[in-house]
Sequence to fold (84 residues):
Amino acid sequence: MKENISCPCCNSSDSIMKLHYGLLTVELIQAIHDGKIAIGKAILWPDRPTHVCKRCAIQFSHDKLYGVWNDKFKTIHKSLADAA
Fold:
């Protein structure tokens, strides 16, 4: 079941990725490679964003806007994608 979530800034729903927190599996690495999920920063639950917009790089949860996604994991994403 696909979530119907849109970006609070650009209202796009097709450029939203879930943020993943925790250990990675082969399936998650493949999803990162495919651009379906992103790696979240080490933020304690429950005060952390759940989604990021690929179009405008805003991270947000269902009830809170967190601002610009600081994608320092871009190189990690690339490394994981290359390893997959």
In short: Residues 16-83 form one domain. Helices lie at 26-33, 74-83.
